[in-house]
Amino acid sequence: MPAITISEPVSTPAASGPASRENIPVRPPFRLQELKALIPADCFRPVLWKSFYYMFLDWLIVAALVWTAVRIDAWWYWPIYWVMQGTMFWALFVVGHDCGHGSFSRSRRLNALIGHICHTPLLVPYHGWRISHRTHHTVHGDADREETWYPMTATEYRDMPGYVRILRFTPLMLWLFPFYLWRRSPRHDGSHFHPGSGLFKAAEKWDVLTSTFWWCGMLGLLGWFGYEFGALALLQYYVGPYLVFIAWLDLVTYLHHSDPDVPWYRGEEWSFAKGALSSVDRDYGVVNEVHHNIGTHVLHHLFINIPHYNLRRATDALAPRLGAFYRSSHLPFWKAFARNARSCHYIDDESHTAYFRAD
Fold this sequence. Notes:
single chain, mainly alpha, two-stranded antiparallel ribbon
């Protein structure tokens, strides 16, 4: 079964089979304004009661899972709890992700408040993450400027220490997010917690400090919990789900931006539209609804201000016009991860349009 399926532009007969590098035009035959006009206008408008509904539903399920764990308190249940609760942590992150893009509401202050409520319990500094994530959307698909899962060049790959290859191209990559937050962002020295790092402008100082303050408060709360109820309880109720959440976050972001059939661009060959289209919609099965359809990612890169509950409808309206530029995969996500980890190692050093290669 092919990993990537495409549809041809509406002016040509539909084709079947895997997407190839040869059947995708050099430049998109449409403009962003044309694409925007194809999407129902209400898809761009956040509906406050819907945004709050999904946020409260997520928190209700989180609370119910904690209550169930307290009631059962059996060794066999803890792995089940970790997977379920970690998945709900990921769902909460997606709600905060909407806040970061201004698609939870039209109020910046409300978005910041809800973003902190959803991200701080996950030990994610909301504003620090929001600002660096904004950079990712601005330069996505640019091989020289990308921030998230950016491609190594052949030279960088050859010079890479063995332990870095193990971290980058094995399942260990699924737990790198805390280090990404704490130590540095790719190609920018600094920390998501420090307002003086290269990630931020001087005007963003107080936003960054605010989120770092919230983060420290959460860390203190976890320390109190461990002191009051013991390290084992902290592991059972929080650390286990947290590790699952981190795995989901790294897995999903990796799969959306890494694929052997997705191009990377350099110099004048890059444009915002081409970069935004260099992503893949993924199918996560029963988890699609739980994590708010974040798998519909191509549309999200084109128009970041569409709320998660409108992504599918907007994608259905847009996909026929995108034609070969719309990439979607129905390969089970664990198979896609295994394939991409083997196939997506580096790109060549100089090509203006480059694809991943493997050893």
